[in-house]
Design goal:
Layout lengths: L34 H20 L1
């Protein structure tokens, strides 16, 4: 039985960037959830878990 070993190309994925900070005085009372920041944090965590699973 013949065995063929092919060369693989590996590329690193960059971590998702953080969203820009909202301007001060946007009218938030401190109790609201910043959805952009939450989405960015979830994206970074999903990326981190994906990288852990790949290793």
């Amino acid at each position: 039985m013949a065995v063929v070993i092919e060369e693989l190309e590996v590329q690193a994925q960059r971590e998702p960037s953080s969203p820009p900070a909202p301007p001060s005085g946007e009218g938030r009372d401190g109790n609201e959830v910043d959805e952009r920041a939450l989405h960015a944090a979830l994206s970074r965590e999903a990326w981190r878990l994906e990288r852990l699973a790949a290793d």
